[in-house]
Design goal:
Blueprint: H1 3-40, H2 43-55, H3 65-68, H4 73-83, H5 89-108, H6 111-143, H7 148-203
Helix pairs in contact: 1-6, 1-7, 2-7, 4-5, 4-7, 5-7, 6-7
Membrane topology: Multi-pass membrane protein
InterPro entries: ExbB/TolQ_transport, MotA_ExbB_proton_chnl
GO cellular component, one term: plasma membrane
Length: 204
């Protein structure tokens, strides 16, 4: 493999990598969107019902929420907390903290892929541009002024690699930021429910 072939192979490899990265990013975004939607469906109404139930001291009734909302994260958390509410405030607090961490881990699954793609896609595109510029200068040195048209086309293709990298990175970063924000809201709501359960246990 000569030098020119190696550079052209590198350019092609970069575009292939970007296509694979795009497909992977779309798959992760769709999968995570489904998970977040299923786990937070009807959450506004459900949170109000859970808080009202806990403040009335009817902790045993918190189990009913998993029957109505079997896939909702707050229903699962309320059912778990109600199940362990008789173990004392300190023990319950530790258990709920562990449960909240477990839920966070589930939501964070595969988000690291989006974070990695968002951070590195521009650099992969830049690598393709570097390959293209090297190829353009190599052809300029080989063909001289007679190859100006070829050199210009090579440079335009090289710049396309950077554009593709940014086109992949921007929506991926936006999606990752959206899911991260949603996760922070979920964590905050779980913290609120934890405090409500602890306060109810203290009153008893």
């Amino acid at each position: 493999m000569n030098f020119e072939s190696f550079i052209e192979y590198g350019e092609s490899a970069v575009f292939v990598i970007m296509i694979i990265a795009s497909i992977l990013a779309i798959a992760v975004v769709v999968e995570r969107a489904i998970v977040f939607i299923k786990n937070t469906k009807d959450s506004k109404l459900l949170l109000t019902e859970i808080v009202d139930t806990v403040r009335k001291g009817e902790l045993s009734d918190a189990h009913k929420f998993t029957e109505t909302y079997p896939e909702n994260v707050y229903a699962r958390f309320a059912s778990f907390s109600a199940e362990h509410s008789k173990k004392g405030k300190e023990s319950l607090g530790e258990l709920m903290e562990g449960k909240a961490i477990g839920e966070r881990v589930e939501f964070e699954t595969r988000l690291s892929i989006l974070n990695t793609l968002g951070n590195n896609a521009p650099f992969i595109g830049l690598l393709g541009t570097v390959f293209g510029v090297i190829n353009a200068f190599y052809r300029l040195g080989t063909l001289g002024n007679t190859g100006a048209d070829v050199v210009m086309r090579t440079i335009s293709t090289a710049l396309l690699a950077t554009a593709v990298g940014l086109a992949v990175a921007i929506p991926v970063v936006m999606a990752n930021n959206y899911f991260t924000r949603k996760l922070k809201i979920i964590q905050a709501n779980l913290e609120i429910l934890s405090r409500e359960f602890l306060a109810s246990v203290s009153r008893k």
